[in-house]
Write a structure and sequence with these properties.
Blueprint: E1 6-9, E2 15-19, H1 24-33, E3 40-44, H2 50-61, E4 65-69, E5 72-76, E6 84-85, H3 87-92, H4 99-107, E7 109-113, H5 126-134, E8 137-142, E9 145-150, E10 156-160, H6 166-176, E11 182-186, H7 192-203, E12 207-209, E13 215-219, E14 228-230, H8 235-247, E15 251-255, H9 263-271, E16 275-278, E17 282-286, E18 296-298, H10 310-318, E19 323-327, H11 337-343, E20 347-351, E21 354-358, E22 363-364, E23 367-369, H12 373-384, E24 386-387, E25 389-393, H13 395-399, H14 405-410, E26 415-418
Parallel strand pairs: 2-15, 3-14, 6-7, 10-11, 18-19, 22-24, 23-25
Antiparallel strand pairs: 1-25, 1-26, 3-5, 4-5, 7-9, 8-9, 11-13, 12-13, 15-17, 16-17, 19-21, 20-21
The structure holds ligand EPZ.
Ligand EPZ is lined by residues 24-25, 28, 95, 123-128, 163, 165-168, 189, 191, 307-308, 330-331, 373-374, 401.
Length: 419
């Protein structure tokens, strides 16, 4: 499908305020979790993202009734008895794998196709499957189809993840919330989105402790009821707008954010020479002068520097004084923005998991293509700070994680429009 394109006239300082939406990476597992309740849940602050709409299509296909009004989604999962996620839906959004734990928890059986690899490289789910097997789930794989059946669940399961996988942690939580048995997850992911999912499940009656730490304890309960819940702010969207302020020497007040989720991001922007001032639910960033290079940025599991912000910071550092080094430790192929940024005059050498960025004085607008969600957002950031016009295609990637990115940026002075 020929997706729309964004036309950006760069070189304008951004000033003003932007309200940040609810987190994509929190609303997806929370929507999956509504399956477990068997009645009505009302989820607020759910951004209008194509990934969220895909999750709603999956819930409908499983028998849920869904309505959404603005940023509020109402899910009634009383009659949900489906156990299959269609191939199309699985390929539309690989993070649909998080429905596996919820469907198994609700109906005890699930069939779905292996999530396709994605632009970031192969996205294995070995940790998800290993953990579910430890919880008594029988899993067969045949021609790329996963067929899973809940078996006798151990009274006490103690699972240690070899790496703090966000998705695997979520799937174990979703499967363990209902039923009898205590599940301990060690080396669990500590991303704020995990605590948000635990917040929703706890409000529905689940018994979960340890959120925010790397050891979670889930005590299965016989029943969960729906609840009303508001999704946490999207820290990656907030960081994207910080990149836009940095690269246009602008000043932005970001509202509806949670600074306590963003220390590693805020410190990198401070190191670039931006003034970063967090308040209770706001961050003010001022980038009055050209940004300076950052010695070394290493992406790490939370609370380290998030891999999702890496392409955005690469774009901002492309136009800076000095040489920066980025080490991408989480995904194998997450420098997709580099070749497109080079077309705009950036001087980036990416080799394996290391990228060296020699800052240039100015970038020039160009025709560029988004290859994945955050690389696409990086191109928007670079285009805003480039001289002249840029045309960004494959905007559907960007729409997966940003609700009308052009609206937010236009509201603070950017010359950006969708064609
Ligand atoms: C979540 O992906 C996010 N997606 C990603 O955001 C984010 O980049 C990632 O966490 C890391 O923070 C959602 O929440 C929907 P992982 P997830 O399991 O769960 C390897 C965005 O742009 N791994 O923590 O897939 C994996 O290959 C997206 O919003 C295994 O080897 O991340 C990767 O290298 C992109 N085996 C690393 O762990 C497994 O079984 C981190 O993956 C699972 C993961």
């Amino acid at each position: 499908m020929e997706s729309s394109r964004l036309l950006v006239e760069g070189g304008r300082r951004l000033t003003g305020e932007i309200r940040v939406h609810g987190a994509k990476n929190s609303v997806l597992p929370i929507l999956a979790a509504t399956l477990l309740c068997g009645n009505i849940s009302v989820v607020h602050n759910s951004a209008s993202l194509s990934d969220a709409f895909a999750a709603m299509r999956i819930l409908r296909s499983l028998g849920c009734e869904i309505s959404h009004e603005g940023s509020t989604v109402t899910v009634n999962s009383a009659d949900a008895n489906g156990d299959t996620v269609s191939d199309g839906l699985m390929h539309e959004m690989r993070s649909s794998i998080v429905f596996l734990g919820a469907i198994l928890g609700r109906v005890g059986h699930c069939r779905l196709s292996f999530p396709g690899g994605c632009e970031l490289g192969p996205r294995p789910i070995d940790l998800h499957l290993e953990a579910l097997r430890r919880l008594g789930v029988r899993i067969t794989v045949d021609h790329g189809i996963l067929d899973c059946t809940a078996g006798v669940r151990p009274a006490n399961a103690d699972i240690t993840l070899s790496l703090p996988s966000v998705g695997a942690t979520e799937n174990i939580m979703l499967y363990s919330a209902l039923g009898a048995g205590e599940t301990v997850i060690r080396n669990a992911a500590r991303e704020p989105e995990i605590a948000d999912l635990a917040g929703y499940l706890t409000k529905c009656g689940a018994e979960i402790s340890g959120q925010g730490t790397s050891t979670l304890v889930i005590n299965g309960v016989p029943e969960l009821h729906g609840c009303e819940y508001s999704v946490m702010p999207d820290r990656i969207e907030a960081a994207t707008y910080m990149g836009a302020a940095a690269v246009t020497h602008g000043e932005l007040m970001l509202k509806g954010v949670r600074p306590s989720d963003m220390y590693s991001c805020m410190s990198v922007f401070s190191e670039m020479g931006c003034g970063v001032y967090p308040y209770d639910d706001k961050i003010f960033i001022s980038a009055r002068k050209p940004i300076t290079a950052v010695r070394t940025i290493r992406t790490m599991p939370y609370p380290g520097f998030p891999t999702d912000c890496q392409p955005i910071v690469m774009a901002a550092l492309s136009k800076s004084a000095g040489t920066s080094v980025i080490v991408e430790n989480i995904f194998e192929n997450r420098f997709m923005a580099a070749p497109e940024l080079r077309r705009m005059g950036a001087n980036i050498k990416a080799e394996g998991k290391v990228a060296v960025i020699e800052g240039v004085k100015s970038l020039c607008g160009a025709k560029v293509r988004a290859f994945d969600l955050r690389a696409g957002a990086a191109l928007v950031v670079a285009a805003l700070g480039a001289e002249g016009q840029s045309e960004i295609s494959n905007v559907h990637y960007i729409d997966r994680g940003y609700e009308s990115i052009e609206t937010a940026l236009s509201s603070v002075g950017a010359d950006i429009r969708r064609i």
